[in-house]
């Protein structure tokens, strides 16, 4: 019985583990360069969004993932506002192979962070007296797959060039 219990404990140590430790805003900015004149114009906005992720290994099995959402909204030719949020999280991740770890950091963690970033951005925009953006969900798995494919093609191109 004791032998089985110790084998079970050894297996649990080897089993993959994922735990969200903390979610926080790392950086936040808002600029409305044409205020207050922009509020007196007819509102016909065009929205441009830039999305980026980065990750950093911390001590032990802890990792920081930062999702950056940058939005520029123009009304006609004039910039109505520029808003950016860096939504970050600290994750405990253990027992994953390299491919699974890469996918977890590149797609799974940003999927967790996105709703927080979207809400923070909407709140910021509303405080600037503009309508909420209500950004559509993002498929980070598809973006991750596209990035992997792009990296593989770049590696193949470089290999054939030599």
Automatic annotation (TrEMBL):
It comes from the Bacteria. It holds the Pfam family SecB. Keywords: Chaperone, Cytoplasm, Protein transport, Translocation, Transport. GO terms for molecular function: unfolded protein binding. One of its GO terms (cellular component) is cytoplasm. InterPro entries: SecB (IPR003708), SecB-like_sf (IPR035958). Gene3D superfamilies: SecB-like. GO terms for biological process: protein folding; protein tetramerization; protein transport. It is found in: Cytoplasm. Homotetramer, a dimer of dimers. One homotetramer interacts with 1 SecA dimer. One of the proteins required for the normal export of preproteins out of the cell cytoplasm. It is a molecular chaperone that binds to a subset of precursor proteins, maintaining them in a translocation-competent state. It also specifically binds to its receptor SecA. Belongs to the SecB family. This is Protein-export protein SecB. It comes from Pseudomonas xionganensis. The gene is secB.
């Amino acid at each position: 019985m004791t032998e089985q219990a110790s084998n079970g404990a050894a297996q649990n140590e080897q089993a993959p583990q994922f735990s969200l430790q903390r979610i926080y805003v790392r950086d936040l900015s808002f600029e409305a360069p044409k205020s207050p004149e922009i509020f007196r114009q007819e509102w016909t906005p065009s929205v441009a969004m830039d999305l980026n992720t980065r990750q950093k290994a911390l001590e032990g099995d802890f990792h920081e993932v930062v999702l950056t959402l940058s939005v520029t909204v123009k009304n006609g030719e004039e910039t109505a506002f520029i808003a950016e949020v860096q939504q970050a999280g600290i994750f405990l991740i253990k027992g994953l192979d390299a491919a699974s770890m890469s996918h977890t950091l590149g797609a799974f963690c940003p999927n967790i962070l996105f709703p927080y970033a979207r809400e923070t951005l909407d709140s910021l925009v509303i405080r600037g007296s503009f309508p909420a953006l209500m950004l559509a969900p993002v498929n980070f798995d598809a973006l991750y797959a596209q990035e992997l494919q792009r990296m593989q093609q770049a590696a193949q191109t470089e290999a054939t060039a030599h």
